[in-house]
Design brief:
This protein has about 475 residues and is of the alpha/beta class. It is built from twelve helices and 21 strands. Strands 4, 14, 15, 16, 17, 18, 19, 20 and 21 form a nine-stranded mixed sheet that branches. Strands 5-6-7-8-9-11-12-13 form an eight-stranded parallel β-barrel, surrounded by six helices. A three-stranded antiparallel sheet has the order 1-2-3. Helix 8 packs parallel to helix 9. The longest helix has 21 residues. The chain starts with about 40 loop residues before the first strand and ends with a helix.
């Protein structure tokens, strides 16, 4: 691999304008276990491996850019969430984070349920053998065709998101001689500590039916009047990438208050509540996520306490981790193409992917880590911005991070914690080809979502 010389970029943080970066690690060759999947190691020869396979070999076999998913880590995280909540609660994997038929099979084998939010996700789940009664169907504007498919398949629950949808689902179920199990999604007025675009429980947004003004209570009345529906509970989701449990405490308190109002008005106790997902993961060393057992203990204590206050039987609790399971299990591998130092600012490192395989930095101002993985280096750190190859100034993968000053074209660098939302949100911007997803476990690697080809790209273009 070539080590062509290039002008060195700035080195020390105190000369840079204000940014998102943190101080460089003492040793840029060290890998922070918080942000990498559990089987990632740097071998004695300096090359990083996952599942026992070095990234140089993976790049040769599968090309770059590519997502490499640590299957052992994924399965272990599924078991950790299931064990934490135990048999008296339900864990639904949020398929929007990343879904494929292989992932559905893993979920089924590890005993998790699955949350889908589109007809495409639903058919993937069904085709891969997920039992329909273990599927929940979300979405703020489900089409008639999607609802029909869900009802016909016998999904375990449909989460109702509007007054119109209450009637729509009831009509479809009744026309088929069925009673569809449903939950009502409510917005509880909690402003989660997250980006504005992924906060979902304040009133001024598209999801759910507001508690404020009695709208959620009216939704319950309407659902209980319709023969085609079996109302089993209330659903609340307050946002994404959340570390502070205080928002969940406020949300649970308000949901349980609604359950008490339903009991007092209708003489029934709804048997379930779903507190959603949104628990954060570590993208950088600064992030400090809670472990599943800590989250489970906190949520169960909150709900139990609030129910005791209102004299309610504690309902069955559901949660929906997606990012928290798949996010840390994968990294994206890139090859360095060009290196452009800007004196007194930073060094721009261009890779062979970009916003087409990870839109989150441009969309949410998301922060990521990055490391040189094809070798070690003793060079001093330089502040770098990892950018893509697309014709867009906002095409940034990692806004500010430290990489070795001897970084050169042909080096392999990797961005960890890209299992969630990166492949799911991938695009063909500039007619780029979406990367493959490769599962790695115990010295074996296999493609679970293949790389797009030019033929794939042209097949949809009818000319």
């Amino acid at each position: 691999m070539s080590r062509s010389a290039h002008p060195a970029g700035p080195r020390h943080a105190d000369v840079y304008p204000e940014g998102h970066y943190t101080a460089p690690a003492d040793d840029l060759n060290l890998l922070d276990e918080k942000v990498w999947s559990r089987t990632v190691r740097r071998h004695d020869n300096g090359v990083v491996a996952v599942g026992g396979i070095e990234v140089t070999r993976l790049a040769e076999e599968f090309g770059t850019p590519a997502y490499f998913l640590d299957e052992s880590d994924f399965r272990a995280r599924c078991r950790a969430w299931s064990d934490a909540f135990g048999p008296d609660a339900d864990v639904f994997y949020a398929g929007k984070a990343f879904l494929s038929r292989a992932v559905v099979r893993w979920l089924r084998e590890e005993g998790l349920n699955l949350d889908v939010c589109s007809g495409g996700e639903l058919i993937t789940a069904l085709e891969a053998g997920m039992p329909a009664d273990r599927i929940a169907f979300h979405g703020n504007n489900k089409s008639t065709e999607e609802i029909e498919r869900a009802v016909d398949a016998g999904v375990g629950r449909i989460v109702l998101d509007s007054y119109q949808e209450i009637v729509r689902v009831a009509h479809i179920a009744h026309s088929r001689g069925k009673r569809q199990r449903v939950q009502i999604r409510v917005t509880v007025g909690v402003e989660a500590h997250t980006h504005e675009f992924i906060a979902t429980a304040h009133e001024d947004q598209k999801f759910g039916i507001a508690l404020a003004g009695g709208q959620a209570a009216e939704a319950v009345r309407r659902a209980l009047r319709l023969d085609g529906l079996e109302l089993i509970g209330i659903h609340s989701h307050i946002g994404s990438q959340i570390f502070d449990m205080a928002g969940f405490e406020v949300s649970a308190r308000r949901v349980v208050q609604l359950l008490a109002e339903v009991r007092d008005e209708h003489g029934i106790e709804l048997p379930e509540i779903d507190l959603g997902g949104g628990l954060g993961i570590a993208y950088t060393s600064e992030d400090d996520p809670s472990e599943p057992h800590q989250i489970a203990k906190s949520l169960l204590e909150i709900v139990t306490r609030e129910c005791e206050t209102h004299g309610l039987t504690t309902p069955r609790i559901s949660v929906e981790p997606g990012r928290a399971i798949v996010g840390p299990t994968a990294f994206t591998l890139y090859e360095v193409g060009t290196i452009k130092p800007l004196e007194g600012l930073r060094t721009y490192v261009s890779v062979d992917g970009g916003m087409s395989d990870n839109i989150r930095t441009a969309l949410y101002d998301a922060e990521y880590s990055v490391a040189l993985v094809s070798r070690t280096s003793t060079a001093e750190p330089m502040l770098s911005r990892v950018v893509g190859k697309h014709c867009e100034s906002g095409d940034i993968v990692v806004r500010d991070a430290f990489l070795p000053a001897d970084l050169a074209p042909g080096d392999l660098i990797a961005v960890p914690a890209t299992g969630a939302y990166c492949r799911s949100m991938a695009s063909n911007y500039n007619h780029s080809l979406r990367p493959p997803v490769v599962a790695v476990q115990d010295g074996e690697a296999r493609v679970i979502v293949r790389r797009e080809t030019e033929e794939d790209l042209l097949r949809l273009d009818v000319g």
